[in-house]
Amino acid sequence: SSRVLWTLAVTQFHKFSIMGKKASRKPPPKKAAIKLSTVFDCPFCNHTKTVEVTMEKKSNMASIRCRVCSTSWQTQTNRLTEPIDVYSEWIDACEEAKNTADA
Question: What global pTM score does this model have?
Fold first, then answer.
């Protein structure tokens, strides 16, 4: 009788261990996002880390301003625009203005 109970208990244990809940794995760690700079060098006064880009997502505008020589510039943005994109557009606009003034 005790042997029958023991085999019944063993089969019930195996039944639950085989059909039981599968152990879940720990999720992989999230990759750290790369922080992009919002402060750059000024091409007019040649000071380093003085040009600051401010993004206004609601109005889709970005402004760029040098803290030393007070040079400023604004442009329209979209939801994918980053501060480095605004700075690059500003540099391109400066070079274009210089080229048209020289011509």
Answer: 0.66
